[in-house]
Design a protein that fits this description.
The protein is an all-alpha fold. It folds into 3 domains: 217 residues, Up-down Bundle (de novo design (two linked rop proteins)); 98 residues; 95 residues. 65% of the residues lie in helices and 2% in strands. It has 20 helices and 2 strands. Strands 1-2 form a two-stranded antiparallel ribbon. Helix 11 packs antiparallel against helix 13, helix 13 runs antiparallel to helix 14 and helix 14 packs across helix 18. The longest helix is centred in the middle third of the chain and has 33 residues. The relative contact order is 0.10. About 3% of the residues have low confidence.
């Protein structure tokens, strides 16, 4: 493989001379022609043919399962049998190097297997468990281990840190926390789904007695065509699997993975907040496990948003330099003239490793106060027993959840500017307090005081310890 400096000198630059560094696409980074790249991908495929065989074995397992277990559901029997047959066909065709992209179909079928027990409301937990395990293994064997079809896991040499950044948002030491939090959310959601699907008669709640039973069995939950907790478990396990995909510099080598990861985390976050808001308002109960899962998700958002910012910068720079953004989005590239390698953390202590895993995230006292106010507002109607004033209770539940969400996202330095949203929420809380709570002095004082404190604590930015290249101008 050619040296990157030689590649840069031989290729004709089209980017503005004012930029201090250059973006190279997949072909420029490898220094290979299209036929040579195909040979590299084919060589990589040959080295991972064992994953094709394992996927075929898993497919045979799917086909055989209906004859070994009593599914009690003909649609699930048909689903597993057809899915197994299609996987064998896709994997067989993928043996031909130029058709390696057929492995995407295997991954798509695996995603369907995650949903099938929910769509058909699997009568038995064994089928739900088997389909989930097989689906996760299929995704790992078709994409995670061999590398994404197309690039074939070919390493793209270059810097680990984005230009102008003081750390690498895609490093493994930063990704482990997000993966662990997603895994916790997966197990909680699976447990709640087991209750909704009828596998267990009662869902344990660590804080609110039978609150979890009331929420998971409410009319809102039953309004969904599938188990809403089961849907959440699918999203969480996909988040875990995607968290493992890509190398330590995937912000430039596999931008599509980071974007897909963000598209899972952000909607999950919005959904969790909506569910937290609706619990006391429409159900009249709290689900303790749901709150734990939502807290884990809100913690993972500021840990993952940095990577999405880095990808955005990389793609914007590629566009400015007249590169093919679509090709770079799917195949990746590199940056020449800027960026550093990850430090060697072999000798790091446990404390140093923990600090490195949350680099770029900190908790100023102002945000800590806002989180406390948000939590108080959510719990206020129960603590103060609002007398005949459901409007005030609804206001506090709504704004409490929104305030906590904004403060949590603002703990990331790259999104610190979002804290100003709490200025609006604080002002709205004061106005709503005057309108709805004027006849209840204790509630009125509580809401006005909370709103004023929110406004005041949203003004200071707090300490910023890291640098983010061109994004620094948005860190306010």
């Amino acid at each position: 493989m050619q040296n990157l400096e030689d590649v840069a000198q031989n290729s004709k630059p089209r980017e503005p001379n004012s930029l201090k560094y250059r973006v190279l696409d997949f072909a420029e980074t490898t220094g290979k022609t299209a036929p040579e790249i195909q040979n590299l991908v084919a060589t990589r495929n040959y080295a991972t043919l064992w994953t094709y065989a394992i996927n075929c074995i898993l497919a045979l397992w799917l086909i055989a399962n209906p004859h070994l277990f009593d599914y009690k559901s003909q649609p699930l029997v048909v689903s597993d049998t057809i899915s197994g047959a299609l996987i064998i066909i896709c994997e067989a065709i993928s043996f031909i190097p130029r058709f390696a992209g057929m492995r995407w179909n295997t991954a798509a079928i695996a995603v369907w297997l995650l949903f099938a027990p929910l769509v058909f409301w699997s009568p038995t937990p064994a089928v739900y468990l088997l389909d989930t395990l097989v689906a996760c293994m299929l995704i790992a064997m078709s994409i995670l281990i061999p590398g994404t079809p197309g690039s074939g896991g070919i390493e793209l040499v270059g810097p680990d840190q984005p230009p102008g950044w003081t750390y690498n948002p895609s490093s493994w030491i930063r990704r482990w926390a997000g993966i662990a939090l997603a895994l916790a959310g997966f197990f909680i959601s699976r447990y709640l789904a087991a209750h909704q699907l009828g596998y267990i008669p009662h869902a344990w709640d660590p804080f609110f007695g039978d609150g979890t039973d009331k929420v998971t069995g409410s009319s809102i939950s039953k309004a969904f065509p599938i188990s809403d907790a089961g849907f959440g478990s699918v999203a969480y396990i996909l988040e875990v699997l995607i968290g493992f995909m890509g190398d330590r510099a995937r912000w430039r080598t596999a931008p599509w993975i980071v974007v897909m990861f963000a598209c899972l985390v952000l909607p999950l976050g919005v959904t969790s907040i909506v569910l937290v808001i609706t619990q006391p308002i429409f159900v009249g109960a709290w689900c303790g496990l749901c709150l734990v899962a939502a807290a884990a998700l809100m913690t993972s958002v500021p840990l993952s948003v940095h990577e999405a910012i880095a990808v955005g910068q990389f793609l914007v720079d590629a566009k400015r330099q007249n590169k093919n953004m679509w090709q770079i989005f799917w195949m990746g590239g590199t940056v020449l003239g800027s960026g550093n390698k990850d430090p060697n953390r072999m000798d790091y202590s446990f404390v140093q490793r923990c600090a490195a895993s949350v680099q770029g995230v900190n908790m100023p006292w102002t945000l800590l106060v806002q989180i406390g106010i948000g939590a108080y507002l959510m719990a206020g109607p129960d603590l103060l027993s609002y007398p005949n004033n459901t409007s005030s209770a609804t206001v506090d539940h709504l704004f409490g959840a929104l305030v906590v969400t904004v403060a949590a996202i603002s703990t990331a330095e790259v999104t610190r500017i979002i804290r100003f949203a709490n200025v609006l929420f604080g002002a709205a809380l004061v106005v709503c307090g005057v309108i709805f709570s004027r006849e209840v002095p204790a509630v009125l004082i509580s809401e006005v005081f909370a709103g004023v404190v929110l406004i005041l604590t949203s003004i200071p930015r707090g300490a910023i310890a890291e640098k983010y290249g061109s994004w620094d101008r948005f860190v306010r």
